[in-house]
């Protein structure tokens, strides 16, 4: 592998040093170094590309041009019809009156001419005298101070000036701007409505230019210099002026006012300006200096002699022309290849460049190929060169060089950085970050929407084509198989097909026609159903379909009105489908069938009237197409409805999770309002009593925004001490408009050494609503050897899938890397969808990578051709550790070779623990530089050496429940790393375990109809596995592997106690230990099948039915890291009976002694009695003996017998609780972000 991060030891330049690709802006410690007004004028005036050499002459010429325009305006006004001229005069007088009240001069001559009544023959306008400096354009009815250049969002004279458009520049030189003499100033300039004397109310409705690029040079210069700025050619010094209050009563804000009013403290970022705020008035000299700088830079670029430029600089690595980049102009960069130890002698030199800490990219280009320059090499130098355009919006240039492959010259890892002259200031760039981010987010969202719409359009086209092809094939099959479909079809059937015997059935008409109705008469007396006693209120069922049982229908038959003495006739009406060549049918009464000795009955159907076989097939093709299309559309609409309902349910659950978390920390921290909103103030309340700051008299808060990435932090702020009897300190902070996360810590010092409360190193983070920008998503790559449902052995596989889906639903990118086992070749989930991704030689073999989507997650399958994963199972080979270590490295190699840079590598258990060490040792130094590692322990009993290694190398590691973390924290395997150890309980995927949408249940149900739903499930389970159905007894279930961990002796005792108390017992699972399996085989033989059934197998559909049918589920584990069984059981309304250990204690709250703990954990309530809450959900015990189990199980059975209504309420309550990944996913996301900081 080649190290892509080389460093430079020698070389000379004048750059400041910053990290390549860095996105964190430095924090400003001072005030603005330049007024925003100066920059706005500079950015806009430079667009004209005029070369002004004589400022007084140019100003005079522009004023004369404006005079001619005024004359044209007066002429136009006098040509108006009387009514229109009268209206114009009234509007003008209103503006003039407001201006006069403010003490401003008004062009009375234009007012007089505009107010003059029209006379016959009058058509010649009077000359209009243009005002002389320092008066401004009469169109504004006032003398506007020089600083009042319009800024984005402000209005002047009715014209809304848009923000400056992004500068578009190219790495090659564009032609220089023409001199002033080459511009035709006699062309009608494009002026703002205000420059023509139009009133604000009128002009505000007119369409103006959408961007500055649409305003021509002359018109724009006039707009800036004549209408908005009062330039005095004799005044070279800045002078303070006042901004008058506008006629609306609000202060008209200038760019300079905005600049001077802003502060690095967000608490004052959005304050309104005070009246009469003094501002600076720029001089003509300031404008001229800007133009002069640009002109000088332009001349240097076009006329410099390369050998003269590098004279006495042959030992330099970088030389710029001009020496300091100028905004809006081109720049020539010379790179001395011989001064670089990294790139010396390389055949190709590229430059990667950007601006403003790499945030601003060149439009469409941020990489250039350098060419050898003409500079002499006599003094040992070897200069290569390129030319770029510096954007107006830049304050800094950043670049590095490379050879087009993996060797970089990046100034010893600090990049080449040069300040830009005449561009935007750093502070203004930071202040506009929110707008830029919002625009970028909007552009991205629009692009994603357009891409999604295009993808959907293509999908719909493909589906339509598939439906057409499917309809063609089906119609052709019917046509070609027409005779076969009709074979043995009749319109009347005699018993035994003997015409001499009685009629069994007949149809009317005798020759039924496709697309019409027909009546079937059935003689039960002559049928196999003749001996059945059918009550008067019950009927026979006719089950029929066409062309081999397509479009099946069930119809209840009726007694025919005409009955013969020796026959009992039943009748039913059939709707004969248009595509029918034959009707297939049977008759049944419950489980008794007349199916023509398993041959089924068949009625021959004739072609529709006036149709031939060919024309009928053509008509069928169109009908089939419509059927397929409508079926698909209905299915899609139903899917959309369900997905919308699921999303609404998720949002509701997630909102509850956040509300509960706020309640839980309220004794330490809360805010007013409770939901932090962008652009608003928030008051933070903090009680240090239960923190490291307990007892401190002074508390400071300091923080930032957007995971500490925002350039405008706040604080340290001293918090206001609580009033007498109070407990919470408080501070008020203003939230920036572009904040999506509020981050902060507390301390007892204003800065430096002291005591800090950083929430155990995780910091305090609060979500911010209504941000201008969305929070960027993380990229998480799970590296695992299990994944449900395609490679599930235990809970690990469930977690990889469900956690990945839950985090992805929160807007993050999640991918899974998995070995490609041999048994995947027969997986129905993967059938037909795996696609080739890449291949490479590594580890002494060829490695192939394919990809597919599993449960909505992108999965990459690593398949080495050394046979490591040509196995029928996940585990069980003699070399599992060797195989999985190889997989860990191959997965990282795939990420490196495909240029993927995840934010997080999430590895699981001992099987992929090796990812942590090998990443930091073998991949992080050599190109896979971005990820941090998170490791999850699913069971500490296996692979302790590997787990210990991963705990040392990862940035954060977790286990699957808080209680299990407490129980294992002192284990020597991980005890030295517990400072980065956290317990986060697992969840279940509510869409995979959903009793409302479940194909394996006899009926769907929710918490609202749990009693009826579980009754139907009990009936179906008894029928399926052979349990007795008499007396609807309670059912106790166990779904578990039969191992020592799972409490084998207690499982046996649960079966005994259940049957002994009059219930039924069902077990699904098997024992890997033959001795244990033999014990359970004997136990199964000892019970009557009516009361207990043991299913020793893995059966996913049956597990769903058992959860839905059982009234209680027993989980008597000796230890349980988390456990999913109890949470799945509650999802289906089965009450859990568990031993309180690990995750079982974190999820099951005993109905008799856990009310306070349940209310706190489920609802964040500190007083369940005060709040009237009961969140308990099961029965628990703590011992390991049968008597302890009896204590919990007997209480559950007693409740079922003695208070059935209460027990059913408990079943409803457990169904309503949220044990999904909503809360754990948020915990993992915070953990991922903390890992990024580590």
Folded structure, characterized:
The structure is a single chain. By secondary structure, the protein is α+β, with helices and mostly antiparallel strands. Among the domains are: 296-424, Immunoglobulin-like; 490-494 and 502-609, Sandwich (Immunoglobulin-like); 665-769, Macroglobulin (MG2) domain (Immunoglobulin-like, Sandwich); 779-983, 3-Layer(aba) Sandwich (Rossmann fold); 1009-1220, Glycogen Phosphorylase B (Rossmann fold, 3-Layer(aba) Sandwich), CATH 3.40.50.2000. 33% of the residues lie in helices and 19% in strands. The protein contains 29 helices and 48 strands. A nine-stranded mixed β-sheet has the order 36-37-38-35-34-39-40-41-42, sandwiched between helices. The radius of gyration is 41 Å and the shape is globular. The two termini are 26 Å apart. The relative contact order is 0.05. The model is unreliable at 1-53 and 117-280 (pLDDT under 50). It comes from Chlamydomonas eustigma. Its EC number is 2.4.1.21. Pfam families: CBM53 (PF16760), Glyco_transf_5 (PF08323), Glycos_transf_1 (PF00534). It catalyses: [(1->4)-alpha-D-glucosyl](n) + ADP-alpha-D-glucose = [(1->4)-alpha-D-glucosyl](n+1) + ADP + H(+). Residues 328-421, 515-606, 679-769 form the Carbohydrate binding module family domain.
């Amino acid at each position: 592998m080649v190290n892509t991060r080389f460093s430079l030891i020698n070389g000379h330049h004048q750059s400041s040093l910053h990290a390549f690709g860095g996105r964190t802006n430095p924090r400003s410690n001072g005030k603005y170094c330049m007024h925003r007004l100066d920059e706005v004028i500079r950015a806009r005036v430079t667009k004209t590309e005029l070369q002004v050499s004589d400022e007084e002459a140019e100003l005079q010429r522009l004023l004369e041009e404006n005079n001619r325009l005024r004359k044209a305006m007066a002429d136009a006004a006098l040509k108006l019809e009387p009514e229109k001229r009268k209206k114009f005069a009234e509007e003008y007088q209103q503006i003039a009156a407001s201006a006069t009240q403010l003490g401003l001069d008004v062009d009375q001559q234009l007012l007089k001419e505009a107010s003059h009544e029209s006379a016959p023959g009058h058509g010649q306008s009077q000359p209009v005298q243009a005002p002389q400096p320092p008066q401004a354009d009469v169109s504004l009815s006032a003398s506007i101070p020089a600083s009042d250049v319009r800024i984005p969002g402000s209005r002047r004279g009715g014209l809304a000036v848009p923000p400056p458009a992004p500068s578009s520049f190219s790495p090659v030189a564009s032609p220089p701007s023409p001199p002033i003499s080459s511009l035709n100033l006699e062309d009608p300039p494009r002026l703002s409505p205000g420059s023509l004397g139009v009133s604000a109310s009128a002009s505000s409705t007119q369409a103006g230019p959408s961007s500055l690029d649409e305003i021509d040079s002359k018109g724009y210069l006039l707009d800036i210099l004549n209408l908005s700025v009062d330039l005095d050619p004799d005044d070279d010094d800045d002078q303070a002026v006042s901004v008058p209050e506008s006629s609306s009563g609000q202060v008209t804000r200038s760019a300079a006012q905005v600049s001077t009013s802003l502060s690095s403290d967000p608490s004052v970022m959005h304050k309104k300006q005070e009246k009469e705020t003094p501002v600076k008035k720029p001089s003509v000299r300031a404008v001229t200096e800007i133009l002069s700088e640009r002109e000088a830079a332009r001349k240097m670029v076009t006329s410099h002699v390369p050998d003269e430029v590098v004279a006495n600089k042959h030992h330099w690595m970088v030389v710029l022309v001009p020496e300091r980049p100028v905004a809006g102009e081109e720049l020539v960069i010379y790179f001395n290849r011989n001064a670089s130890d990294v790139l010396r002698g390389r055949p190709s030199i590229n430059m990667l460049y950007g601006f403003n800490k790499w945030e601003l990219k060149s439009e469409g280009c941020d990489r250039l190929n350098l060419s050898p320059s003409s500079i002499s090499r006599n003094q040992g130098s070897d200069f290569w060169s390129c030319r770029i355009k510096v954007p107006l919006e830049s304050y800094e240039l950043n670049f590095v060089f490379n050879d087009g492959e993996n060797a970089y010259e990046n100034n010893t890892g600090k990049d080449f950085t040069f300040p830009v002259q005449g561009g935007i200031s750093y502070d203004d760039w930071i202040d506009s970050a929110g707008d830029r981010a919002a625009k970028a987010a909007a552009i991205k969202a629009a692009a994603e929407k357009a891409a999604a719409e295009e993808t959907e359009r293509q999908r719909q086209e493909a589906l339509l084509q598939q439906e057409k092809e499917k309809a063609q094939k089906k119609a052709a099959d019917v046509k070609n198989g027409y005779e076969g479909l009709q074979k043995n079809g009749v319109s009347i059937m005699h018993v035994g097909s003997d015409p001499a015997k009685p009629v069994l059935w007949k149809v009317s008409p005798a020759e039924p026609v496709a697309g019409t109705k027909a009546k079937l008469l059935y003689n039960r007396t002559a049928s196999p159903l003749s001996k059945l006693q059918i009550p008067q209120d019950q009927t026979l069922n006719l089950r029929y379909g066409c062309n081999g049982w397509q479009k099946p229908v069930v119809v209840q038959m009726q007694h025919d009105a005409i009955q013969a003495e020796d026959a009992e006739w039943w009748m039913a009406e059939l709707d004969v489908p248009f595509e029918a060549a034959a009707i297939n049918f049977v008759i049944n009464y419950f489980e008794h069938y007349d199916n023509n000795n398993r041959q089924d009955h068949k009625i021959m159907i004739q072609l529709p009237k006036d149709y031939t076989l060919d024309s009928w097939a053509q008509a069928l093709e169109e009908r089939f197409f419509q059927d397929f299309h409508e079926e698909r559309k209905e299915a899609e609409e139903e899917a959309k409805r369900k997905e919308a309902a699921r999303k609404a349910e998720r949002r509701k659950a997630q909102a509850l999770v956040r509300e509960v978390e706020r309640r839980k920390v309220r004794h330490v921290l809360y805010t007013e309002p409770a939901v932090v909103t962008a652009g608003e103030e928030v008051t933070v309340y903090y009680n240090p009593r239960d923190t490291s700051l307990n007892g401190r008299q002074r508390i400071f808060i300091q923080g930032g925004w957007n995971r500490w990435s925002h350039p405008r932090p706040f604080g340290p702020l001293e918090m206001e001490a609580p009033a007498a009897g109070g407990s919470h300190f408080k501070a008020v902070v203003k939230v920036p408009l572009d904040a999506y996360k509020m981050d902060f810590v507390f301390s007892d010092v204003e800065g430096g050494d002291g005591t800090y409360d950083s929430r155990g190193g995780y910091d305090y983070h609060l979500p911010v609503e209504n941000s201008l920008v969305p929070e960027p998503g993380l990229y998480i790559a799970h590296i695992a050897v299990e994944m449900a449902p395609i490679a599930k052995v235990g809970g690990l596989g469930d977690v990889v899938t469900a956690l990945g889906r839950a985090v992805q639903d929160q807007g993050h990118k999640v991918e899974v890397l998995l070995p490609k086992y041999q048994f995947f070749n027969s997986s129905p989930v993967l059938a037909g969808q795996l696609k080739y991704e890449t291949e490479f030689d590594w580890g002494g073999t060829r490695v192939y990578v394919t990809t597919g989507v599993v449960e909505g997650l992108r999965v990459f399958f690593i398949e080495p051709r050394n046979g490591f994963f040509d196995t029928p199972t996940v585990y069980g080979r003699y070399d599992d550790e060797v195989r999985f270590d190889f997989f860990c490295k191959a997965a990282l190699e795939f990420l490196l070779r495909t240029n993927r840079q995840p934010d997080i590598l999430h590895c699981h258990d001992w099987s992929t623990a090796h990812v942590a060490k090998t990443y930091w040792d073998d991949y992080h130094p050599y190109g896979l530089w971005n990820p941090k590692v998170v490791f999850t322990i699913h069971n500490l009993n296996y692979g302790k050496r590997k787990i210990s290694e991963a705990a040392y190398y990862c940035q954060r590691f977790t286990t699957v429940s808080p209680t299990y973390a407490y129980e294992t924290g002192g284990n020597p395997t991980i005890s030295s790393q517990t400072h980065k150890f956290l317990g986060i309980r697992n969840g279940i995927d509510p869409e995979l375990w959903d009793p409302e949408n479940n194909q394996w249940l006899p009926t769907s149900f929710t918490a609202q109809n749990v009693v009826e739903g579980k009754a139907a499930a009990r009936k179906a389970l008894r029928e399926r596995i052979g349990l007795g159905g008499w007396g609807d007894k309670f059912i106790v279930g166990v779904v578990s592997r039969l191992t020592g961990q799972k409490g084998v002796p207690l499982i046996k005792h649960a079966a005994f106690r259940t049957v002994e108390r009059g219930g039924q017992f069902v077990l699904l699972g098997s024992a890997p230990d033959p001795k244990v399996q033999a014990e359970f085989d004997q136990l199964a033989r000892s019970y009557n099948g009516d009361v207990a059934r043991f299913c020793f197998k893995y059966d996913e559909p049956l597990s769903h039915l058992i959860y839905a049918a059982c009234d209680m589920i027993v989980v008597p584990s000796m230890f349980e890291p988390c456990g999913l069984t109890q949470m799945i059981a509650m999802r289906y309304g089965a009450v859990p009976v568990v031993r309180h250990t690990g995750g079982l204690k974190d999820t099951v709250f005993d109905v008799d002694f856990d009310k306070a703990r349940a209310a706190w954990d489920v609802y964040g309530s500190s007083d369940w009695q005060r709040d009237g809450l009961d969140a308990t959900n099961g029965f628990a015990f703590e011992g390991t003996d049968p008597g302890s189990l009896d204590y919990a199980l007997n209480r559950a059975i007693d409740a079922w017998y003695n208070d059935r209504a209460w027990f059913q309420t408990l079943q409803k309550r457990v169904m309503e609780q949220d044990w999904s990944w909503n809360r754990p996913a948020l915990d993992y996301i915070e953990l991922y972000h903390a890992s990024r900081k580590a």
